[in-house]
Amino acid sequence: MNYETQVMLEISFEADEFYPQAAALGSHAAEALKDKHRSQLTGLENIAESAFKISDIMDYIKKQTARFSHWRHTLVRGENPQQGFGERLRAYLENDLAQRRDAVCGRLQIGDSTYQDKQKRRRIYLLLIRQFIRSMVVEYEYAVSAEKNERKER
Amino acid sequence: MPTHTQLQKIWLLSDTVLYGEAVAFMRHLVRDQGCNPLPASQVNGLLSIAESQRYDKLYEFVVHQRDRDWQPGKRDIKTFYAALEETLTNMQKRLRSDFHLLGGPRKSGGQDEADEQELMALLAREFIQHLVAENGLLAIRPEGRQQAPRNQQASRYQQQTGPAHHSQHRQTGGRHGN
Question: Which of A43, B27, B41, B84 is 20 to 30 A from B135 (CA-CA)?
C-alpha cells in the first residue's frame, strides 16, 4: 500500500473514532450559533479547507470567540458546563486531536526530528482538523434544520 | 520574493514555534506580570502595519511605541512594545541559527539584507497575528480584565529586559506544535 493510501485510511479510521465528539460539538454549535449565524461556521469550514497553517484555524476560532458572545455560549448540561463553544472546540483541536495525530504518526512511523517528518506531522494534523470540522458542521446543519422543521410543524 | 521552500519552512515555524511563543508571550504579560491586554486601537494599528509594511517600518513603529511617553494608565502598552521589540530582535538573530531560513554568515547590504528583511516581515507578521488572536481571548477572560496594581508595573520594563524573559517564553506555550 502506498503512503498516501495509508494516510487516508488512518484519517478515516480516526474520523470514525472522533465522530461522537464532532457530533457533540456540532450540537453545541447549533445551540450556540443557531441558524442565524450559519455563515460563521461555514466560514470556519472554508478556512480549515484552505489554510496552509493549523495556527490560522486556531487564530480564527480565538478571534470569533473573543468577538461574539454566541461563540462563548455554554451548555447547561454537558461534560464541562463552564466551557463555551469556541473554547471547547479549540481545546479539543489543540489537545485531543494532537494526541490522535501522535497516534497516527506512530502507526505510520513518522518521527518528529527531521524537517520532512515535521512537515508530514503537520499535514496529518491539518487533515485531522479538516475532517473533524467537516463532521462537526454536518451535525450542526442537521441539528439546525431539524429544529427548523420542528418549529414549522408546531 | 521568498521561495516556496522558504514559505513552507515559515508555515511550519508558525505552527510549531511562533504560535506557542506568541501564546506564552501574551500569557506571561497578562497572567504573570499583571498587564492588561492590548486595547483594540493598538491591536488594529499593529496588525495593519504588520500586514502592509516592510519589516524596517514595523520595527520602527514598535520602537516608537515603546519609547513614547505613555500616561500612567497606559504603561502596560509600553511594557508590551518593550517585550515585542526584544522578541523581534531575538527573532532576527534566530533566522540563521534556529530557523535555518538563511544560510551562511550575515553580510550587510545588498541582496542578503533584502532577503533577511523580507523573511523577517513574514515571521513578524505570523507572530503578531498569533499575538493578536491570543490577546483577544485574554481580554474576555476574567484575568485579562483585571487592572494590575500600579506599583507592580513600575518595575516591569526592567524585569523584561533580562535574559530570563525570553527563555520563559520558549519553555511555555501551546502544545499543538510538532
Answer: A43
